[in-house]
Every structure is written in structure tokens, then in C-alpha cells.
């Protein structure tokens, strides 16, 4: 090669580098990138040795979790860039939103680890890389990588010094997505220089930035995942034997368990932060897992024999889909007693396996009719928080459209399992299984209203039959009494060394717009409404909003799910109201459903007014609902307690009085507060101030704002973290508490709130933000080691 030729090539390369660094208004084509760094080749997971000194598992994972995954996790990760795992980084980004309540056709499935298994497959599904996929050189790894360029953009263009970020930062829940690929990143950066990563938050510290950039420059190597302890692998093997028995009974029981635990993060005591998923495989234990991926867990697997395997999930733990479920010797013993007893109420035979036809598989009262009702109910009750949390977090991270069907704050109780163990229950469910059909069997129909009328009529027929059955059942037991409500006691038929009451017997649910959280025990002041759930209701909630819900479904599927959940909410509320004196029942329901559609009365007339059985619960006050709450607390005993209640911690009287004063704030001041405010009080801990919105009723999908009654809003102050999407961070010194409470109680304008934030707030623009974030997560982990996970910062306010 001549010197002149070499010089010419060097000049051309230099010219391209100048273009890359300076070109703003035009995109650079793929062929131009190819000339610079070679053709792109999708990067695949590889166990080959690497020369890189920095790796994901050894060096950068924790920083990526603390600074990136707090926005880029689960289905609502911007641009579907799920950074919880190395596999998600390789997959990259996609501009198509998963959450779209308006689409007429179901969307293509893009579930990480399920709907594609190689990076090449993800490229064919519309994902573009965020890591360099061209030649592995330091320059290429930085210049041709979207992640590297996004971090550099933030470093070169830090956030403005103003406390409130400019209006061109879009923090709306339904924000317009911008998902630049490397080919158009220069144009994106020129137009939006302040939109580097982390978006709308401070830049990484110099040390963090250097670490991540050096890792990227070296090729973003994965490294070696942590090795599973031998003791845990042994337990995995034991459980896979349990899950894959050959008898018809074992196969049916394990199908039932799978359809209820397919979203669970299963874990063992020896490795508490290592999680497994129960998956369907075409291969038996001892062979590599060949995962069967279907839209729903009860869809036809298209293989002669299904095996249930424990697949280790490499993902980081994010709060919005974190649902831990322990596997241990006691659990296996209980399941053996529930499902494989050879005598007594749990003794039964299985003569056939149900088909996977949607009309059967979508209706658990048909598909699992051979399993004892009481065994199924106790299985779900034993971890009732998890069972309910499935539909709150479920397969969707943030709540699906059905979440606007629930109140912002309510309590949940359960019918005693001892009332669900008669042959009459099984016969009743068998005779009424056609009334218990669920919308999932309709799939992505284009006829939502026609189907809604069908399910509405089926619900009416079911309530009519249920009223007659319940009346007879209660009369045979001598009348309705508190013992009909589960207080957390174990079944005498299930032998266990644990004598404490099950803390799942009472739950508190908080809704935060389109997300929600579920907590054991009764938290906060007495709520407006409460539910009492029996077995058929619990099972239908699961198959409607968990096993049968499709986050990728069309508008009709989501609308039908929401409309049907209306029926289930009303039923749960009527079960609770049915404990009140007869002359109070319609009055309470009318208050809960002020200005609701007239057809609500139909359901009340079909059920509550048809219950004909003596009520042995005696009331003496002028407020039976509040009296009932107190009776339930006494009946539940320790199962009603919650460490989240401010009274649970031994606080000095003056401090407790301040917290109670804050919780008792009413009226206009509340209107300025976001839904969740996370408060850190040094030397005391974390607290959450929850703003509970009030509504005249929740009987309609549309017009929620028109049904708002702001004057009835209230606050709940709780110890610890409530919710997965904090809206506001505050730091308050102990000596400032009185001033803090006083300022909240006297809020009269947005300017007043701004002053409050100026004094106590840690805004998203604050230079202290990341240090505060780290402190919050450290306290979260130490106070709730099993429940703690990465919070999501996509809903932090800019005020």
C-alpha cells in the first residue's frame, strides 16, 4: 500500500468521525456505519472466554440496576428496553408500546425469554440494538452503541440547574416514545440535547460513568453468572420430581398448581434472592428445559406430555412485578396433605385429564372439577396476598384497564374454608359451571358489547342461584356469624408445626392510578368499602385477570375484562354488606354507588335481598359498618395486625400524635399531594404518605374524573414503603416534623406546595437524588428483605 493511499484512507476515516460527531439534522445510514465499523451482526449469549477485564455480572450489574433498571424494567420499560437482565440488553429496544388500550387487533408477543430465544429472532421482531453489534473495537463500541451515546449525551448536556425541569421533558404516563437507533441517534441528540440517560434525572457520577463506559468500550462482556449452590440444586431436583408425577391425579394437581403459580418468583431459604419460574417444558427433569410458550398458561401445549420445570430467572428484582413465593419442606407437606390424602375430605379420584379446549381450559370449575373444592381454596388462601397480588401486578407490571374498577383503599377478608368443604359446594359449582364462564375464552373478540350482555346474564343467573344456595347453607349452620370469616387458623386436617395464625387472612389494597399494591393486615383508617371473598370469587378473579388476561390483547378483550371485573367487585362488596343488619344493607350499597347506573340495583335485588337466613351477629351502635370492622379485627386477632401501621412501632406519644394528625388531614390541602410521597426521617426510617382519592362510584369505565369527590379524599400514613412507583421524595428531620405536618395541613395553593418541596423535597433534578435513592433502597432491603425490590421512577413528579 502506498503512503498516499494510506493517507487518503486515514483522511476518509477522519472525515467520517467528524461527520459522526457534528452532524445533527440528518440521519446516518446503515451503509455508512458499515463502512466505518463493519456490518452489524446480532450479538448472542456466549460462554466463550473474553479478554475484557470488566463484565456485567462481576462489575456493572449493580450500577445498571441502581441507575437504569429503576426506569427500564418490565412491560412498561420505555421502548421495551428491559434492562433487568443481560439478555434484555442484547435484545435492545422497540418503539411499539405494549400498553395500548385502543388497538383493534392483538399485538405481537414480545415476552423476554419466551417469544424469542436469540438476538437474531428479536431483530426479526423489530428490536434494534443498544449495544454495538459491529466490529469489537473501543471506538466502535462507544460510537456505534446507543447506550454509550445516551450516557455521553447526558454527560455533555447535564440537567438544567433549575429545580423544575423544562416543559419539554415529557413525564406523562402516556408519553410519546422516542426510541432512536444508532442510525438516527445524531439527529435525535441534536433535536433533544437534554434527553440523555438517565432521562429527566441527574447524570451518573464520574466514577459510575467511567465504569459503565469502560465496560462498554471493552465490549460489554457478560461474564459468568453466579453459580447455584449445590443445596439449592438438590431442592430444585426434588421439587421437579414432585411436579412431574405420572399418575392422572399428579398430572391434574400439577397443572392446577402451574396455572396459579406461573408468575410466582419461587425461591429457597438457602438462596433467598435467587428466583425460579415454574414453566412448562417438553422435556422431563434431568434434560435441558425446552420451554413451551403460549399466550395463556392453559393454552394447548401441543405436546403429548407436559413437564413442569423450575427455570432460574436471571432478571434483577423490580418491585412492580416482584411476587416471591417460598418453596420448602413444609409447603410440600401441606400440598401432599391437601391434594394427595388417601382418606377424609381431601380423598378423591381422578379418572381423566381435561382437554385444552378454550371452553374447558378457561373455566377452572370445569377443568378442575375433580379436585376437592376445599383443597383448591386452601391452596389459594395459604398465600392470599400472592393470590390477590397476581391480579394487582399480574402479567402486566402496572395495572391493566381493570384496575380502575377498585377503590383507592379497601380491606379484603375471606370466607372460612370450613364453610367450603361440603359436597354441596362441589355440586353447586358443577351445576352452575356454565354461569361461571369467563371472557378469556372469547379471545380478542371484536364484539365486546354482545359478549358483555352474555356474561351479564350469566352473572345474574349465578347470583340468583348463589342466593338460594347460601341461604340454605347458612340456615343449616344455624345462622350467619363471625366464624364464617377466616381468621387465619390452619385447617385441622393440615398438620403443621406453625401455630401462629396465617397473616394472609386480612389484606389491605391501595390503588395508585393504574398501579396498586397489596399488603398483609389491616392498614390505615377504616376504608369506605371492603370485600369478603369466597372460593368461586377468588378463582374467577384469578382466571379473569391473571391466567386469562392478555396485556397484548385488543381493546375488546381489555374492555370485557374490565366490565366483568365490575361483577366480581360488586359480588365481593355484597358479601361484606351481607354481614350488616338487614335494614342497613341497601343503605350502605346506595352510598357506595351514588349516581351509578340503574342496573346496579338488579344485582343487589338478585343477591342481597334474596338471602333468607338468620344473622347472629349482634350490633349495638348507630354505625354498624364501623362496628363490623371492629368485630372483624377482634375475630382476626394477630392476623389483622400490620407492621405498616404507625401504631405498630413503639413511638413516643408526641411523635405518634403528629403522625395521626397528618393522617387526619382533610379537605383542600390533600388535593395538592401526589398519590404516594415517600418520606425519609433520619434515625427513624421510611414512611409513605398515601393520597386516597374518593369517588361517588366505580361502576363505569369512563368518566372517572366526573365521579371524583375530592372533598372525601383522605390520607394514610404508613411505616415503610407502600406502592412501587413513588411520586415524590421528602426528607424531614425529626425536629422538623411539626413544621412539616403544619405546612401540609395548611396547603392552599400550588405555590404553597412548591415551598414545601423547596424545604423538604428531593426533586428528580436534585444533585442529592441518587444518594437519596440509594439510601431508600438500602433501608427498604434491611426492613423488608423478602419484599424489597427496585422501585420505578417513571412517575416521579416534576413540581
Blueprint of the fold:
Blueprint: H1 3-22, H2 30-37, H3 56-69, H4 86-91, H5 119-124, H6 138-143, H7 146-156, H8 185-191, H9 206-217, H10 230-242, H11 248-261, E1 265-268, E2 271-281, E3 307-313, E4 324-326, H12 329-339, H13 358-361, H14 364-367, H15 373-382, H16 384-392, E5 409-414, H17 423-431, H18 448-476, E6 507-512, E7 515-520, E8 529-533, H19 535-545, H20 555-577, H21 582-592, H22 600-606, H23 624-636, H24 653-663, E9 676-681, E10 685-692, E11 714-719, E12 728-731, H25 737-745, H26 750-760, H27 769-783
Parallel strand pairs: 1-4, 5-8, 9-12
Antiparallel strand pairs: 1-2, 2-3, 5-6, 6-7, 9-10, 10-11
Structural class: alpha/beta
Strand order of the largest sheet: 3-2-1-4
Helix proportion:
25-40%
Gross morphology is globular
Q: Count the DSSP helices.
A: 27
The Cα radius of gyration reads 28 Å
Average pLDDT score: 89
- The proportion of strand residues reads 5-15%
The separation of the N and C termini measures 63 Å
* Number of DSSP-assigned strands: 12
Biggest β-sheet strands, sense, barrel: 4 strands, mixed
> How many structural domains in the coordinates?
4
Q: What low-confidence regions span 5 or more consecutive residues with pLDDT below 50?
A: 1-26
Amino acid at each position: 500500500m502506498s503512503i498516499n493511499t494510506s493517507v487518503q484512507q486515514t483522511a476518509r476515516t477522519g472525515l467520517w468521525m467528524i461527520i459522526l460527531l457534528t452532524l445533527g439534522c440528518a440521519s446516518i445510514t446503515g451503509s455508512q456505519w458499515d463502512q466505518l465499523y463493519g456490518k452489524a451482526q446480532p450479538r448472542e449469549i456466549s460462554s466463550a472466554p473474553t479478554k475484557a477485564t470488566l463484565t456485567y455480572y462481576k462489575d456493572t450489574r449493580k450500577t445498571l440496576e441502581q441507575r437504569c433498571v429503576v426506569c427500564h424494567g418490565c412491560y412498561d420499560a420505555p421502548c421495551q428496553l428491559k434492562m433487568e437482565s443481560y439478555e434484555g440488553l442484547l435484545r435492545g429496544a422497540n418503539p411499539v408500546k405494549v400498553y395500548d388500550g385502543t388497538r383493534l387487533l392483538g399485538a405481537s408477543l414480545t415476552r423476554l425469554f419466551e417469544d424469542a430465544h436469540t438476538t437474531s429472532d428479536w431483530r426479526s421482531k423489530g428490536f434494534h440494538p443498544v449495544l454495538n453489534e459491529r466490529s469489537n473495537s473501543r471506538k466502535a463500541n462507544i460510537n456505534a452503541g446507543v447506550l454509550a451515546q445516551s450516557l455521553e449525551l447526558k454527560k455533555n448536556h447535564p440537567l438544567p440547574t433549575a429545580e423544575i425541569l423544562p416543559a419539554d421533558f415529557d413525564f406523562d404516563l402516556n408519553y410519546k416514545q422516542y426510541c432512536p437507533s444508532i442510525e438516527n441517534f445524531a439527529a435525535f441528540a441534536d433535536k433533544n440535547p437534554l434527553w440523555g440517560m438517565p432521562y429527566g434525572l441527574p447524570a451518573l457520577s464520574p466514577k459510575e460513568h467511567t465504569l459503565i463506559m469502560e465496560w462498554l468500550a471493552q465490549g460489554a462482556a457478560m461474564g459468568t453468572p453466579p453459580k447455584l449452590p449445590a443445596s439449592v440444586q438438590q431442592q430444585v431436583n426434588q421439587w421437579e420430581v414432585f411436579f412431574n408425577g405420572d399418575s392422572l391425579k399428579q398430572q391434574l394437581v400439577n397443572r392446577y398448581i402451574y396455572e396459579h403459580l406461573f408468575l410466582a418468583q419461587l425461591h429457597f431459604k438457602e438462596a433467598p434472592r435467587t428466583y425460579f419460574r415454574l414453566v412448562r417444558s417438553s422435556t422431563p427433569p434431568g434434560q435441558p428445559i425446552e420451554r413451551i410458550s403460549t399466550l395463556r398458561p392453559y393454552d394447548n401445549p401441543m405436546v403429548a406430555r407436559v413437564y413442569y420445570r423450575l427455570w432460574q430467572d436471571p432478571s434483577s428484582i423490580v418491585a412492580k412485578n416482584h411476587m416471591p413465593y417460598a418453596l420448602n419442606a413444609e409447603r410440600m407437606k401441606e400440598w401432599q396433605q391437601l391434594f394427595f390424602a388417601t382418606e377424609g375430605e381431601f380423598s378423591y379420584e381422578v379418572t381423566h385429564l381435561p382437554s385444552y379446549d378454550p371452553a374447558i381450559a378457561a373455566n377452572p370449575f370445569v377443568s378442575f372439577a375433580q379436585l376437592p373444592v376445599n383443597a383448591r381454596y386452601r391452596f389459594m388462601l395459604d398465600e392470599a396476598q400472592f393470590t390477590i397480588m397476581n391480579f394487582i401486578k399480574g402479567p402486566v407490571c402496572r395495572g391493566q384497564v381493570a384496575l380502575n374498577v377498585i377503590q383507592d383503599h379497601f380491606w379484603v377478608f375471606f370466607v372460612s374454608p370450613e364453610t367450603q368443604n361440603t359436597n354441596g359446594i362441589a355440586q353447586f359449582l358443577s351445576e352452575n359451571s356454565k354461569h361461571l364462564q369467563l371472557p378469556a375464552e372469547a379471545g380478542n373478540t371484536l364484539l365486546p358489547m354482545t359478549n358483555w350482555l352474555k356474561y351479564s346474564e350469566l352473572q345474574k343467573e349465578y347470583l340468583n342461584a348463589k342466593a338460594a344456595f347460601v341461604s340454605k347453607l347458612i340456615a343449616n349452620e344455624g345462622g350467619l356469624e363471625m366464624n364464617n370469616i377466616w381468621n387465619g387458623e390452619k385447617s385441622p386436617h393440615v398438620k403443621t408445626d406453625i401455630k401462629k395464625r396465617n397473616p394472609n387472612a386480612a389484606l389491605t389494597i391501595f390503588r395508585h392510578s393504574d398501579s396498586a399494591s397489596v399488603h398483609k393486615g389491616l392498614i390505615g383508617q377504616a376504608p369506605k368499602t371492603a370485600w369478603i371473598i369466597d372460593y368461586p370469587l377468588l378463582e374467577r378473579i384469578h382466571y379473569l385477570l391473571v391466567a386469562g388476561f392478555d396485556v397484548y390483547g385488543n381493546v375488546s378483550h381489555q374492555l370485557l375484562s374490565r366490565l366483568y371485573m365490575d361483577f366480581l367487585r360488586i359480588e365481593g362488596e355484597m358479601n361484606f354488606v351481607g354481614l350488616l343488619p338487614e335494614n342497613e344493607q341497601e343503605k350502605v350499597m346506595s352510598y357506595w354507588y351514588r349516581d351509578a347506573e340503574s342496573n346496579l340495583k338488579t344485582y343487589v335485588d338478585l343477591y342481597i335481598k334474596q338471602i333468607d337466613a338468620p344473622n347472629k351477629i349482634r350490633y349495638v351502635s348507630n354505625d354498624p359498618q364501623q362496628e363490623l370492622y371492629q368485630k372483624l379485627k377482634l375475630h382476626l386477632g394477630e392476623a389483622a395486625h400490620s407492621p405498616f401501621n404507625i401504631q405498630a412501632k413503639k413511638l413516643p406519644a408526641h411523635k405518634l400524635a403528629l403522625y395521626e394528625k397528618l393522617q387526619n388531614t382533610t379537605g383542600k390541602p390533600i388535593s395538592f399531594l401526589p398519590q404516594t410521597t415517600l418520606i425519609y426521617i433520619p434515625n427513624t426510617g421510611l414512611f409513605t404518605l398515601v393520597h386516597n382519592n374518593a369517588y361517588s362510584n366505580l361502576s363505569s369505565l369512563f368518566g372517572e374524573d366526573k365521579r371524583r369527590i375530592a372533598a372525601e379524599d383522605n390520607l394514610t400514613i404508613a411505616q415503610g414503603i407502600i406502592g412501587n412507583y413513588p411520586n415524590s421524595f421528602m426528607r424531614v428531620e425529626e425536629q422538623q416534623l411539626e413544621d412539616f405536618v403544619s405546612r401540609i395541613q395548611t396547603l392552599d395553593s400550588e405555590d404553597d406546595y412548591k415551598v414545601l418541596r423547596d424545604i423538604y423535597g428531593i426533586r428528580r433534578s436534585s444533585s442529592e437524588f441518587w444518594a437519596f435513592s440509594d439510601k431508600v433502597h438500602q433501608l427498604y432491603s434491611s426492613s423488608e428483605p423478602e419484599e424489597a425490590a427496585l422501585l420505578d421512577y417513571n412517575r416521579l413528579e416534576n413540581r
